């Protein structure tokens, strides 16, 4: 089973990732990961940190001559800003008296709950790890997982659906056109008119010392039916995807397919009718069982159903405000304004790339569980046998 562990603080020396259970013989180069790290950084509304960092991964184990070995993969992403935080993030006790503690928690952040849980009188001990900087590590994991899934023609696209209450109109735009547009948009938005209005909304929030959130959508195409399972709660694919997406900093909601809209419709307007076209009857993508609609978003009963997977997640406004909210100093217990850390006004376009990586990880994990094997060749063999069985069903 593929699993990973990340380590590192926002202003520490680096982020470290260990991926275990990754099969052998998958082509993987640092450039494959760097490409997605760069996509995560390109975003209108980001703060000064992105002017410092140019994320690059170093692969220190698990890959030889451009292919995975089957052993644990170690990835390291340097924090270039660490040079300015050596004393504040030092591992030495000698530096503990050189930096004033952060004692004014930000409403909506992990600051106060974390300080209470871990009995910390300096909130920096909490906020450094709680920072969204950690998502760079998860994007690196997702890039590796996409390299695996690419071998089976499974593809992903992510884009901005809404920012600050402004929703993109994607009607009449093909998926290939959406892909082309979002990769050249600093908002990852395929609707140019909506993107202009979103930028105005971001600029207004920045001028007011405020922040705004939004909604992103991820589509995964080429996924075979049968990933995940209905038999246990923790094997349901939609449940696993939702949990992983909810673990992303500032994400407060997840939808699959119609999502919340399905609660407002009758069953006849929600469920996707089934059709069948025998193999060999005529050429085209619709052979065997298929659906003409995809309200389920590619998942039924906790399992992929062969249709494109459609997932959305909602991001709240970032908790750090340049015009801070009221708070209480954890040391003096006096009323104060919340602390101000360097931050972003809007991080929604970056969320799209992060969420894409998270979904890719969960799909890859379910894929390897389904088809087994320690190497690409073994997985390919199991995959072919499964498709033969599906065609004969």
Q: What class, by secondary structure content?
A: alpha+beta
- CATH top level is Alpha Beta
Largest sheet: 5 strands, antiparallel
Could you tell me the CATH topology label.
Answer: Chorismate synthase, AroC fold
Specify the overall morphology: globular
**Poorly predicted spans:** none
Under the CATH scheme, which architecture would be assigned? 4-Layer Sandwich
The total tally of domains equals 1
Number of helices: 10
Strand content: 15-25%
- The helix/strand order is EEHHEEEEHHHEEHHEHEEEEEEEEHH
Look at the structure and name the CATH superfamily: Chorismate synthase AroC
Q: Level of helix content?
A: 25-40%
Notes on the protein architecture:
With 393 residues, this protein is an alpha+beta fold. The chain has a single domain, classed as Chorismate synthase AroC (Chorismate synthase, AroC fold), CATH 3.60.150. It has 10 helices and 17 strands. It has helices at residues 30-41, 49-52, 111-118, 124-130, 135-150, 175-182, 192-207, 237-246, 348-371, 376-392; strands at residues 3-7, 14-20, 57-61, 63-64, 67-68, 73-78, 155-163, 166-167, 214-221, 251-256, 274-277, 288-291, 299-300, 303-304, 309-315, 326-328, 335-337. Strands 8-7-9-15-10 form a 5-stranded antiparallel β-sheet. It has a 4-stranded antiparallel β-sheet with strand order 1-2-6-3, covered by helices on one side. A two-stranded antiparallel sheet has the order 4-5. β16 (326-328) and β17 (335-337) form a beta hairpin. The radius of gyration is 22 Å and the shape is globular. It starts with a strand and ends with a helix.
């Amino acid at each position: 089973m593929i699993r990973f562990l990340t380590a590192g603080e926002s202003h520490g020396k680096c982020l470290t990732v260990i991926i275990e259970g990754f099969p052998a013989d998958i082509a993987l180069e640092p450039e494959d990961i760097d490409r997605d790290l760069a996509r995560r950084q390109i975003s209108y509304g980001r703060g000064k940190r992105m002017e410092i960092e140019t994320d690059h991964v170093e692969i220190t184990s698990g890959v030889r001559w451009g292919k995975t070995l089957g052993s644990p993969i170690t990835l390291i992403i340097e924090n270039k800003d660490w040079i300015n935080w050596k004393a504040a993030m030092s591992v030495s006790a000698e530096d503990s008296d050189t930096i004033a503690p952060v004692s004014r928690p930000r409403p909506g952040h992990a600051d106060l709950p974390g300080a209470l849980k871990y009995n910390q009188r300096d909130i920096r001990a909490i906020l450094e790890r709680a920072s969204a900087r950690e998502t760079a590590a998860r994007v690196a994991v997702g890039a590796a997982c996409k390299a695996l899934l690419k071998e089976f023609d499974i593809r992903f696209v992510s884009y901005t659906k809404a920012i600050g209450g402004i929703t993109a109109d994607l009607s009449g735009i093909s998926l290939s056109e959406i892909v082309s547009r979002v990769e050249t948009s600093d908002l990852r938005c395929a609707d140019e008119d909506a993107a202009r209005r979103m930028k105005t909304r971001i600029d207004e929030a920045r001028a007011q010392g405020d922040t705004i959130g939004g909604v992103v959508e991820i589509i995964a195409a080429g996924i075979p039916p049968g990933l995940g399972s209905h038999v246990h709660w923790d094997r349901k694919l939609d449940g696993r995807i939702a949990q992983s997406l909810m673990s992303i900093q500032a994400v407060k909601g997840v939808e699959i397919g119609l999502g919340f809209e399905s609660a407002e419709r009758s069953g006849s307007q929600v469920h996707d009718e089934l059709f069948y076209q025998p193999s060999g009857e005529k050429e085209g993508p619709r052979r065997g069982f298929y659906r003409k609609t995809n309200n389920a978003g590619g998942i039924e009963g906790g399992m992929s159903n062969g249709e494109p997977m459609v997932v959305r997640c909602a991001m709240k406004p970032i908790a750090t405000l340049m015009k801070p909210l009221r708070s209480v100093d954890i040391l003096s217990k006096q009323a104060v304004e919340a602390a101000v850390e360097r931050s972003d006004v809007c991080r929604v376009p970056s969320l799209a790339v992060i969420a894409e990586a998270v979904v890719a990880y969960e799909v890859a994990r379910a894929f390897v569980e389904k088809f087994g094997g320690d190497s690409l060749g073994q997985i390919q063999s199991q995959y072919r046998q499964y498709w033969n069985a599906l065609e004969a069903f």
